[in-house]
Amino acid sequence: MTSEEKWKSVIENNTDSDGKFFYAVKTTNIFCKPSCKSKVPLRSNVDFFDNKQQAIDAGYRPCKRCRPDLLNFNPSQELTKNTKDIIDKYFTDIDELEKQIQNLGVNKNYLNKLFLQSYEKTIPQYLCFIRIKKAKVMLLEGSKIIETAFDCGFNSMSSFYSSFKKETGCTPKEFCRNHIKNTHIL
User: Fold this and answer.
1) Where in the numbering of this chain does the HTH araC/xylS-type domain appear (predicted)?
2) Residue 43's closest CA among 68, 11, 15?
3) Is 46 helix (H, G, I), strand (E, B) or coil?
4) Residue 24 and residue 46 in contact, taking contact as beta carbons nearer than 8 Å
5) Is 66 a catalytic residue?
6) Nearest to 31 by CA among 23, 41, 21
7) Residue 11 to residues 37, 40, 42, 44, 62: CA-CA distances in angstroms?
């Protein structure tokens, strides 16, 4: 590619050019992929490199936005994984869960949309799924229904019963009865 073709790729944020070359900005000492969404620099401040090692050897550091130093960088995937990890850890403590998700610094609707794309469940659906999964384990271990509901993060018995029936197709009591009946048959 000529310098002008490379420059055109930078201006257009061309993802097809990623990996074919890197560009560096003299005034910031940062190098980027052609698809980087950062502000377009002045052409006179740009150097082109065939690979990232050449840019590093010339004294440039990788951009924190487009991460040209990584083979694959998917911030949305990283964000949804972090969200899932937070839910898995704090599903029983709604206040801490809210605080941790808020600390991600992302609009809740946008985060929910990304989560749905990654895990085929919305955040509330996944939260309910995790809580019911834990509830089933507790019930089978002999915990009382009321204790299970509150220990799994439900703030009322009606929300627990409603969520449990929606997720499993039966009430907590029926679930326990069915499981005991099925284990005696074996």
Assistant:
1) 81-178
2) 11
3) strand
4) yes
5) no
6) 23
7) 10, 6, 10, 14, 19
DSSP assignment letter at 15: G
126: exposed, middle or buried (C-beta count within 10 Å: 0-12, 13-18, 19+)? buried
pLDDT digits (tens, 9 = 90+) for 122-156: 999 999 999 999 999 999 999 999 999 999 999 99
Residues 46-86 have pLDDT tens digits of 999 999 899 999 999 999 888 888 766 567 788 899 999 99
**Which residue is catalytic, options 32, 36, 63, 66?**
32
List the alpha helices (DSSP H) in the chain: 3-11, 52-57, 75-90, 94-102, 108-119, 123-140, 145-151, 157-168, 172-185
Specify the CATH architecture of the domain 75-185: Orthogonal Bundle (1.10)
Specify whether the CB–CB gap between 128 and 160 falls below 8 A.
no
